[in-house]
Write a structure and sequence with these properties.
Bound molecules: ligand BES, manganese (II) ion, zinc ion
Number of strands: 18
CATH superfamily of the largest domain: Zn peptidases
Strand content: 15-25%
Radius of gyration: 24 Å
Number of domains: 2
Oligomer: single chain
Number of helices: 15
CATH architecture of the largest domain: 3-Layer(aba) Sandwich
CATH class of the largest domain: Alpha Beta
Distance between the termini: 25 Å
Structural class: alpha/beta
Largest sheet: 9 strands, mixed
Shape: elongated
Length: 485
C-alpha cells in the first residue's frame, strides 16, 4: 500500500509554515491565489517578476518551481479563474503529491485554493491519488520513496477528509487489481470483502463452489469448471438506510481470463489479470461506504473465478443453466464474463427488491475499439437511471457514452437450441451483444445499467492522478456521486 496515510490541515501565515515544499496557484489571468499573493508581497514581488519572464502562464497542468528563502514554492497553473472546476483541482493537487514523491520530499503542503466544498473534496482525492504507487514487488526498497502525508493550508473544510477517504478507497481498489492473478485470487477478493465488512459493519456471505452449484448457478459453475483455484460468489450487504430499497452493485471478478478452450492469443494475455476490475470498482465503492457510513441500503455482489483451460474446462457448445432458470448455449468460452454476471444479476433480482442495479465489467475487447481508453460504454433500459448516470459522470469527470439496446440487438443473442447464446452476430456490435445478453438476467421492471469498463479500468494515458501501468479504479467516484455520498 503506497499512498499517503493522512492529510493534515493547518492554518498559518507563509513565514510560519514548516514545510519543504509549498504549492500555491496561479490563474491564466495572471492573478495569484491568496497564499501566492502573500508570498509575492513579502518577498519583493518574486512571483510577479516570474510572471514577467513569461514562464508562469497559469495554464492548466503547468508547474514552476521557485525558491523563496530556501523553501520550494511550487506554482501550479489553474487555468481561467471562472472555469476552475473539481477536475482541475484534483489533477493539480495530484501533481503536487506526484512532485513530492518524485523529489523525495516528505513534508509537502498545498494551499487550499478551492472555491467551494466540492472542490475541497476533489483536492483531498487528488492528493491521495497523486501519491499512489504500486511498488509491492520491487525488492530494493532503498530506491523507493513513499509519501506519508500532505498538509492542506488554510482550510478547515471537512470535505478534504472526505476526499481523502474516497481517494484511499480508490487506491485500495487499484492495489487489489494491480496484484497479479496468483495473488489476487477469488479467495483474496473474499478476504478483501471481509475486511470491508468488518470496517463498515456489513453482512458478508461467501458461497463456495459446491454451494453456488447446488443453488443453481450453472453459469458461474460452468466457467469455474476449469480451475483449481476455489471460485467464490461474494455478497456484501450494508443496511443503514431504514426502509429504502437497496442499490445493488455487481462486479465481474474474473481474476484471470485465459479465454478457456477458446483460448486468447499470447500477446498481452498478462493484462487479463485486470479482468477483475469490475469487482475492484464495486468493492472500492463499498470500502468508501465503510469509511463514510452513509444512511443508505446497498448490496455488493461479486462472482469470482478464473477462466482457464484443461480437462475439466467447459467447452464451446456446452449448455448451462443460469440461476434464473434460463439456458445458455456457450459458443465461445472467452465470453465468460457475461456468464458469471448472469448468475449474479439473477441473484440480485431474486433476493432483493433493488432501487436499481449497476454492473461493472471488463466485458468486451470491442469496447476498447469503440471508445478507446477515454470513456466507459453504458447500456440500460431505464431512461431516468441512465440520465442519473450521465449526470454523475459529468460531476465526477468520469466519462460515459450510451450505446443502444435496440430490439434488433436483443434478437442477436437468442439461440437456436437454448434460450440464449453467449455471443452475438460475428464481428458486429460486440459490446452491445454483451449488454443484450446481460439484460436477459435482470428482473423485469428493475432499473439497471451495465458499465463496460474494458477500456477505462486500465490502460489510459498516465496523468497526475493515475500512474503508468496501473489499474485506475474507474467508476468509484461516479457511483458515490450517484448515491449522494
Ligand atoms: N475480459 C475479456 C474482455 C477484454 C478483452 C477486456 C481485452 C479488455 C481487453 C472478455 O472476457 C472477453 O474475452 N470477451 C470476448 C467476447 C467475445 C468472445 C464475444 C472479446 O471481447 O473478445
Ligand atoms: Mn474472456
Ligand atoms: Zn473476461
Amino acid at each position: 500500500m503506497a499512498y499517503i496515510s493522512k492529510i493534515n490541515q493547518e492554518k498559518n501565515e507563509w513565514s510560519k509554515i514548516d514545510s519543504d515544499l509549498i504549492a500555491v496557484g496561479i490563474f491564466e489571468e495572471k492573478t495569484l491565489t491568496d497564499l501566492a499573493n502573500q508570498i509575492d508581497m513579502e518577498n519583493d514581488k518574486i512571483l510577479t517578476n516570474a510572471i514577467k519572464t513569461g514562464d508562469l502562464k497559469g495554464k492548466v497542468g503547468e508547474q514552476n518551481l521557485i525558491y523563496v528563502n530556501q523553501t520550494r514554492v511550487l506554482v501550479v497553473g489553474l487555468g481561467k479563474r471562472k472555469k476552475l472546476n473539481p477536475d482541475t483541482i484534483r489533477k493539480a493537487s495530484g501533481s503536487v503529491s506526484r512532485y513530492a514523491v518524485k523529489q523525495k520530499i516528505s513534508s509537502a503542503s498545498i494551499e487550499c485554493f478551492c472555491m467551494d466544498s466540492i472542490q475541497c473534496q476533489a483536492m483531498g482525492e487528488g492528493l491521495v491519488l497523486g501519491s499512489y504507487q504500486f511498488n509491492n514487488y520491487k525488492t530494493d526498497k532503498s530506491k523507493l520513496f513513499e509519501l506519508d502525508s500532505v498538509t492542506v493550508l488554510n482550510s478547515e473544510s471537512e470535505m478534504i477528509q472526505k476526499g481523502f477517504k474516497i481517494g484511499s478507497s480508490i487506491c485500495d481498489a487499484r492495489d487489489i487489481a494491480n496484484h497479479p492473478g496468483n495473488i489476487t485470487t477469488p479467495t483474496r477478493l473474499s478476504e478483501f470483502a471481509e475486511e470491508i465488512a468488518d470496517e463498515g459493519d456489513m453482512n458478508l456471505k461467501v458461497f463456495e463452489r459446491e454451494e453456488f452449484t447446488e443453488m443453481g448457478m450453472g453459469a458461474l459453475a460452468g466457467v469455474a469448471q476449469g480451475t483449481n483455484e476455489p471460485p467464490k460468489f461474494i455478497v456484501l450487504e450494508y443496511n443503514k438506510g431504514r426502509d429504502s430499497k437497496p442499490i445493488v452493485l455487481v462486479g465481474k471478478g474474473l481474476t484471470f481470463d485465459a479465454g478457456g478452450i477458446s483460448i486468447k492469443p499470447a500477446a498481452s494475455m498478462d493484462e487479463m489479470k485486470y479482468d477483475m476490475c469490475g469487482s475492484s470498482t464495486v468493492l472500492g465503492i463499498f470500502k468508501a461506504i465503510a469509511k463514510l457510513k452513509p444512511s443508505i441500503n446497498a448490496v455488493c455482489i461479486v462472482p469470482s473465478t478464473e477462466n482457464l483451460l484443461g480437462g475439466n474446462a467447459y467447452k464451446p457448445g456446452d449448455i448451462l443453466k443460469a440461476y434464473n432458470g434460463k439456458t445458455i448455449e456457450v459458443l465461445n468460452t472467452d465470453a465468460e464474463g457475461r456468464l458469471i454476471l448472469a448468475d449474479a444479476l439473477s441473484y440480485a433480482s431474486k433476493h432483493y427488491e433493488p432501487e436499481y442495479i449497476l454492473d461493472f465489467a471488463t466485458l468486451t475487447g470491442a469496447m476498447v475499439i469503440t471508445l478507446g481508453h477515454i470513456a466507459t460504454g453504458i447500456m440500460g433500459t431505464d431512461e431516468k437511471l441512465i440520465e442519473k448516470v450521465k449526470n454523475s459522470a459529468e460531476n465526477t469527470f468520469e466519462k460515459v457514452w450510451e450505446l443502444p439496446l435496440w430490439p434488433e440487438f436483443l434478437k442477436q443473442v437468442k439461440s437456436e437450441i437454448a434460450d440464449v447464446k453467449n455471443i452475438g452476430a460475428a464481428r458486429q456490435a460486440g459490446t452491445i451483444a454483451g449488454g443484450a445478453f446481460l439484460k436477459e438476467f435482470v428482473g423485469d421492471n428493475i432499473p439497471w445499467v451495465h458499465f463496460d469498463i474494458a477500456g477505462t479500468a486500465w490502460g489510459s494515458e498516465p496523468n497526475s492522478i493515475n500512474p503508468k501501468g496501473s489499474a485506475t479504479g474507474w467508476g468509484i467516484r461516479l457511483v458515490l456521486d450517484m448515491m449522494k455520498i
